[in-house]
Every structure is written in structure tokens, then in C-alpha cells.
Amino acid sequence: MIIRPQGATDQHVPYAAGRFTDGDAFAINQIGAASPFGGLLCSIGSDYSVDLMPDGSGCSQFAGRELTHSSRLSKAWYIRDKESGEQWSIFFSPMGKRSDEYEVTFEPGQASVYALKHKIASTLTIATVPNMPCEVWHLVLENRSATTRTLEFTTYIEPRADSLMEAAFHPNDNVLLMRRPLSAVDVIHDEGLVNDLVLFHSCTLAPVRMAIEKNEFIGDGRSLANPIHIEDNNKNSENGNVRKLIAALTIEVELPVEGAAECGFSFGVAPNPESAMRVARNLNKSEAVREAIQLSRQCWRDLSATVQVSTSDRVFDALVNTWLPYETYSGWIRQRNSPGNLDPSQVADILRCLHSLSATAAHIIRPALLSFAAGLSLLGSYSPDERSIVSIPPTELLWLVIGTARYVAETGDSSILAESIALRDGPAMPLYEHCERIIRMALDTKAADSNFGDDRLLAETIRSWSLIQAGAADPAKMLETLQRRNLDREDVSERRSLPRRIKYLQSITPALADKVIIDDLIDFLGSDHLGTGDVDALNALYSVLVEWTLGLSATREGLLLHPRLPDSWIECEIERIFRGDTYKIVMRRNIVEPGCGSSMIVDGEPVLGYMLPFFGDGGVHNVEVTVG
To answer: What does 14-34 look like in DSSP terms, one character per residue?
Structure first.
């Protein structure tokens, strides 16, 4: 099924059409627009990311710095047939020659381009790796012709550096190191450049030649569409210092009839040459590159495994099972890498981006919550570092409470509530006191300084907090205070417009056009004013679909199951992992007796109410639900 926007979306949708394949991968065979899923490759535990378009353009980034240029093409991959002299690029860019077959497939953290041209099939996979400051490339070439073929494959990388740079190839390890010479006296005016870092580009095969200077690679009167280095076998650079630095490695492979060959590459950054060599040596075999790609794939599968759903809506399944958790996190990485200043209305994105991963990334979420709390002041401002302070809206403060409640509910680790946190300008208090203080601050906000959307988010926060904190202040009294404040309002805010990204997702799946889901989403997003970013919107959508539509909510005591399925659904299946237990849930709508109540059976035994029993045995438990 080709995924294209349908109906009125009130926007220009800048996304390419495509289809979901095995494992929720999103395949595109057209160019000219970005992929709606997976366009930014990133991995947990690494500040390295790759922005990739279906035509091969894009940019590599590390910790907010551009390693390659985002304003122009700065990476390319070329193939040349030595006998015929034919040349082409694996991606459509930069040579712009159409292939007999062409498809780019995006998965969380990685993308693969498949092309068939001149009876040579090529597959190049690009992936980021968890806990490593680099990207890896895995190349497979297949001979589909009736004769033996000898091919050259050439990489091209143009780092974003503007000073004299030193490039040295280490033949024993097949690694090209690039850094600012120790003797350089140039003044670095742009902190975003990579002049003060060590870059490396490695290959699992011994290159037959290389290039380190841009003009020598391209040639006079030429461009990346027809560089002289690809045509001239005698072009080869020596180690040295250059001002227009590039990294280009050429390997040669011979393919017998119906034969295939593979090779691996890496490109990354390190603080010093020793660290760079250590990373490159860990990736100096094709097997190591394949394993790194598989690690990246498995990491995101494990992180997204908390909820897996199977319904009649293929797009809905892909969103919940794979893409909403990934896109929420990658949206935060993209936001961090942007050149703009910190937006006070999105400070809590550092918590929201991990919200859907609370059960599987606890080792990251716990310190993130404590670190965020430690940056707060008595007045509710936030200090992301020692040099700055940001005044943030009360709704952003609430996300510390929401994140803490979700973490405790999913993991059962209530010890975090007793962690002592010192405010930036006040005394040390346990985390639970910080959270309750934030709720009180939000309740004390004057009606004129908040809106109905803010109060809806506050009400949801109070309910979530009451489910995990037994000694919490009376939630009923808090909600009553909130209700009185709403009665005092003179104006009623207009219905909120959904964010652009949500409108696009509505256009590709009918489930998101369901009125109940739309109302739930508007409630969950909170504030009635426009400006919600991708992280907030996608996290809200995931929470609505899982906690309200599917009805699965985690509490300190166990799982609540109270579904509100779209009217068009007759049946759905869910696998929910909760504190080591696996619940296999089958929901069926009662179409024989419409109007009757819901019922639930767990492991053959009827269960009253909506709470699933918590076993804590690490086993698999079958749940049958009849939805009234």
C-alpha cells in the first residue's frame, strides 16, 4: 500500500509517498521530498546523527555541530566500471542518472538505498550506532550480467572546516585521520566548525587510492556530478595539510558472474587521534560493521517493545509499534542540533522525548529526571547549564511530575521519589516534594495567566501523580480547586488547531481522524496556543493512542485496561510488557449484544474492574477483553 496524504490537511505536506514493509520499514522510490519517517538517523547513547534525504543529500552532525555541510552536497558514493568506463552514483545525487530500479528504505537509526544500473545491483546501508560517535556504511555489490566485472567504488566526504587541516592515512588500519595541525595558528571564528576535533574515515578493504583536497578531486570546470578523480586512475593524494579538506577512498572489487562482494566503512569524530583509532579499529571488519548495524536495529526494537499492537489499520500499527517512539526521540535530537536558541516553551522536551521509552530506557530516564529537577529554581525557572537561566511556563514544569509518575509506574522504582535534589537557589528536598510543589505552583496560577488547555494538562498531571504517590495531597480537592478556577473565567478559548505533523499523520490513517481521538489529543496537548513542536505533539499522540484509545495505563499497583476503540474496529491484539511480565491481550467488540458492558478474563479467570493483576513472575499471561 502506497502511503499518500488524503483529504484536506490545511497544509502543504513536504513528504514523499512510500509504503510500509517488513518490520515497519518505510520504503520510498521517488526523490524530491523528505521521508516522513526516519529521515534523521540517531541512536540512544550517542550525540551523533545523520540527516538523510531519499536522493542522498543530507548532513552529519555531532552534539549540535555540523560535521558536513547542510547547505550543499557534502557526501557522495560513486561506482565506476573499469572496462566500460561507465560511472554512476548509488544515490540519485550527485550524478542525477536514473537507475533501472531505485528504492530507499528507512528504519529507526538507519537507511538503505538499493539501485540496479548497468546490471550491477548495489545496496548501501547507513546507520548510527548506540554509544558510538560515528556512522557506519555497509556496501553489497552484485553482478547481474553474464560477464566478470571489475568495479571501483569511491566515497566522498567534505567536512565543515575552514582552516588548514592535516590528513594522514594509516595503511595498517585503513584509516584516514583528519585534524587541525598542532602547529596551526589560525583563529577559529565559528565554534560550529569541526576544526578542533579529530575526524576519521575508515574502510574494511585496502583502498587503491585516496583524495584529501577538494579541487584535486573535482577538477577544473567540473562538479560532483563528474569529478575527475573518478575517471583518472592516476589521481592519488599523499598525506599532508590542505585548506579544502575532503576524504575520498577508492576500493576495487572483481565480481564473477552472479557473484557478490561486500565492504564496510565508517565516518566519525573523536576528541583525539587515539580515540579515533580505537573506534575505527573496532569497525575494521565487514562482520563488525554488519554487527553494528544489527545492534542499531535491535536497540530500537527493544526500546519500542513495551507496546506492540495488531489492528486492521496497518499505519496505526506502524506508528504505535515503531515510529512514534523513534520520531519523538529523533525530534529532540534534531531540535538540539538546530542553530536556534533554547525555546522556553520546549525546555521539557528533554523529558518528553523519552516519555514513551519509560519502561525500556530507565537507565537514561532516571538521571534525566534528577538532572532536570536539579536545574530548577524556587521561582520555577530552569538553568540548563552554569551560564544561563530560562524562565519557563508552568506547563513545562508539570512535565517533571508527569515524567516521574510515568517512570515510577512503569518500573516500580519508587526510590527515586526520595532522592534529595538541591534547587539552584534554595534548600535540598526529596524529588516527591519538588513534584508536589510544582503542582501547588500550577494550582496557585491566576486564571488570567493560564487557559483551559493548561488546566486540562494540570488535571491529567494530578491524576497521574495520585496513581503512584500514596501520600499525595488529596487529588479530589486539587481537582475541585481547578474546577473553581475554570468557573471564574470570563472567556472561553477557541478550539485548538492540531500541529502540522499530526495533520499529516491524520491524512494517512483513518484511525486518527476519529473524533474521540482528536478530542483526546487536543486535551492531552494542553495549552490552547499554537506552537507545539514535533516532540510534544508526537509524544502526546503516542500517549493518547496507547493510554486512551487502547486504554493501557500503568500505575504503581499494575496496569489499568479501559479501551476506547474506534467504531470501525472489531478486534485488535496487543502485547504489553510490564515490569518483566508479558500480557497478550485480545480485544473483541461485542457485536452480538450491543449496549452490554465490558468484561475481562485473565488466564481463564474472570476479573472485575479494569485493573490487570500483576504477577511479577516474568511469565506470559493471556487476557481476553470483550468491549461493550
So the answer is: -B--BEE-GGG-EEE---SSB
Above 60 in pLDDT, residue 190? Answer: no
Q: What is the pLDDT of residue 395?
A: 79
Set of cell numbers at residue 600:
475481562
To which H or E segment does residue 296 belong?
A: helix 286-303
Question: What is the rounded CA–CA span in Å between residue 486 and residue 447?
Answer: 7
Across residues 348-375, what is the average pLDDT?
A: 89
Confidence of residue 374 (pLDDT cuts 50, 70, 90): confident
CA-nearest of 510, 512, 511 to 502 is 512
Query: Which of 262, 264, 268 has the alpha carbon at shortest distance from 285?
Result: 264
User: In 375-514, which ranges are continuous DSSP H helix?
Assistant: 394-411, 431-443, 452-468, 475-487, 500-508
620-627/581-589 β-pairing: parallel
| pLDDT tens digit sequence for 2-39 | 555 544 444 455 789 999 999 999 999 988 899 999 99
Q: What is the pLDDT of residues 523-581, one digit of tens each?
A: 666 544 444 678 888 988 998 899 888 999 998 889 999 988 888 889 999 999 999 99
Question: How far apart are the C-alpha atoms of 519 and 521, rounded to whole Å?
Answer: 5
Could you give phi then psi for residue 235, rounded to 5 degrees? -75, 120
Give the integer Cα–Cα distance in Å for 499 and 38.
Answer: 19
Q: What is the pLDDT of residue 513?
A: 78
Q: Are 349 and 535 in contact (CB under 8 A)?
A: yes
Specify the DSSP element, H or E, that contains 363: helix 362-374
SS3 for 225?
coil
> Helix axis angle, 452-468 relative to 515-525, nearest 10°?
90
What DSSP string describes 512-571?
GG-HHHHHHHHHHH--SSS---HHHHHHHHHHIIIIIIS-EEE-SS-EEE-----TT-SE
How many angstroms separate the CA atoms of 170 and 168, rounded?
7
- CA–CA gap between residue 405 and residue 417 (Å, rounded): 9
pLDDT recorded at residue 592 = 74
pTM: 0.91
Q: CA-based diameter of the chain, in Å?
A: 83
Determine contact, residues 112/54, Cβ cutoff 8 Å: no
Which among 178, 181, 182, 184 has a CA at the least distance from the CA of 198?
A: 178
Pair 466, 474: CB distance under 8 Å: no
More confident site: 269 or 593: 269
Give 462's pLDDT tier (boundaries 50, 70, 90). Answer: confident
Q: Compute the residue count for the chain.
A: 628
Positive or negative, the CA dihedral 562, 567, 569, 571 is: positive
What counts of helices (H) and strands (E) characterise the chain?
15, 31
Q: Are 541 and 356 in contact (CB under 8 A)?
A: no
Q: What angle do CA 591, 596, 597 make, to 5 degrees?
A: 115
Peptide bond into 256 cis (omega under 30): no
Q: Which CATH architecture describes the domain 19-301?
A: Distorted Sandwich (2.70)
Residue ranges of domains in the chain: 19-301, 304-554
